[in-house]
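In the laboratory, one determines a bound structure by crystallizing the protein with its ligand and collecting diffraction data. In a computational setting the workflow is compressed into a single prediction: the sequence and the ligand go in, and a structural description comes out. We illustrate the idea with thymidine-5'-phosphate.
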Amino acid sequence: MGLFITFEGVEGCGKTTQIRLLADALERSGKSVKLTREPGGCPIADKIRGILLDAANSEMTPTAELLLYAAARAQHIKEVITPAMKAGNIVLCDRFTDATLAYQGFGRGLDIDLIKKLNETATGGCRPELTILIDCPVEIGLGRAVARIEAGSAADKNHLREERFERESLEFHQRVRNGYLKLAADAPERFVIIDGAGSVDEISTRIFEAVLPRIN
Ligand code: TMP
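The predicted complex, in structure-token form:
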């Protein structure tokens, strides 16, 4: 069996850059790595991602949103994560079940026990061994995320407008951040919190140091 590691954090915390750096470093040291993300990771889940993140879908109800995340995850687990684990890969996933607890639970206020049950159903009990939470103030993260969106739409007129969450209030993102910190405090054996305020190199070194003992 492989090793399952997830990355979490608020918008613009830097996790997508960091997950790629970790994947490169692990591959250079001879490991087989499967890099994937949620929502998405396979064609059906990518289509669901398009619906979930489209800024035009502002009328989507929180319950519809929750069920779509669960649907995308069920497909992603079956098609991507379980086979990659069985093949002995280190699976690095950009967001996973904790994102649903943080965003739909703490952010939207949906029932946490219901979300846990849906997560369990969607994953069939597959859980990460390690979760890297890159923590940063929401003002800093949102500033970076909005700059990235603006650069993307200026460069490409067909740029997908995946910005439904960036349009939420600062209070929403603050609840998400606090939710992540609570999840980490409740499961210290699984979570490593990394301060997202450092340089890209400093953060990647800290992440590598956190991952190394789990690999060897
Ligand atoms: P990304 O920007 O990291 O690719 O994530 C896409 C967005 O989806 C991000 O705003 C967080 C949100 N999200 C949820 O609300 N619930 C979930 O379960 C997942 C996986 C992501």
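The beta strands are 3-8, 33-37, 90-94, 130-135, 191-195. Keep in mind that any predicted model is a hypothesis to be tested, not a measurement.
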